[in-house]
Write a structure and sequence with these properties.
single chain, 226 residues, alpha/beta, Rossmann fold, six-stranded mixed beta sheet, four-stranded antiparallel beta sheet, 8 helices, globular, binds adenosine-5'-triphosphate
């Protein structure tokens, strides 16, 4: 999918959270790094229309995040910083079924869809658990399953390995790497994006670097230590 920012700017009241941005993204994996408060989440939410541009526009394959809000939402999935907050039903299987069910999928087709995504992410053993019985990494995968089952073309992750131990981190990284969908990954975990062909660095609401991972990480380190 081609994501196009056309002088897109975000303000919260008088505060400019994202300076006017011109950018075209089409890569399969895109990393987003930057210091706390640099505008990464704002940038990510602009893509699926959760944040609306104060000026300019953002389009996904020509669909405008404001005018075509519903179509944009159905093409994108978002995994929030705290995935526990996006699991709304008490049993994981039911939560994953919720999205397709509300779009009219039922019976065997619904079971197949849910079982398929549980198998794809290797979490069939978690199907009958409750969210509080899951580790941080398992919660990420459960939230991802509920998103993937709705068939998005793009999945946006907001700090997916935040506060995970090495085992859970590896599990989440493997799941992201194996995802057939295009993915945009915001992260303070530099290793996670170190293999990506394109990494964006934000600083004080501005895109200050756009290029290969190692050079992006070097730029980020400079900013962090200056
Ligand atoms: N709804 C809002 N209203 C007012 N200010 C906001 C709002 N959301 C974010 N901000 C401010 O905009 C700036 C950018 O925030 P954003 O969450 O996009 O940064 P970030 O790079 O994702 O940060 P972090 O790494 O800490 O998650 C911050 O100064 C933040 O306080």
């Amino acid at each position: 999918m081609q994501i196009t920012f056309d002088r897109a700017e975000v303000r919260y009241g008088a505060y400019v959270a994202l300076q006017p941005l011109d950018l075209v993204l089409g890569e399969q994996r895109i990393g987003v790094i930057g210091l706390n408060g640099s505008g990464k989440t704002t940038f990510a939410r602009l893509i699926n229309g959760l944040v609306k541009p104060f000026a300019g526009r953002v389009t996904l394959d020509g669909l405008d995040t404001v005018k075509d809000e519903k179509a944009v939402l159905s093409k994108t999935g978002f995994i929030f910083q705290n995935p526990a907050n996006q699991i709304i039903l008490p049993i994981i299987r039911d939560d994953i079924a919720f999205g397709p069910k509300s779009r009219g999928v039922k019976g065997d087709a619904l079971s197949r869809a849910v079982d398929g995504v549980l198998a794809q992410l290797g979490i069939a053993h978690l199907a009958d658990r409750r969210p509080h019985e899951l580790s941080g990494g398992e919660l990420q995968l459960a939230a991802l399953a509920a998103v993937v089952v709705t068939g998005p073309e793009l999945v946006i992750f907001d700090e997916p390995t935040n506060q995970l131990d090495l085992k859970n981190r590896a599990m989440v990284q493997a799941a992201i790497d194996a995802l057939p969908q295009q993915a945009i990954v915001i992260s303070h975990d530099l290793d996670l994006v170190s293999g990506y062909g394109r990494v964006l660095v934000f600083h004080q609401g501005q895109l200050v670097f756009d290029g290969a991972a190692q050079a992006a990480i070097a730029r980020y380190r400079e900013l962090a230590l200056s």
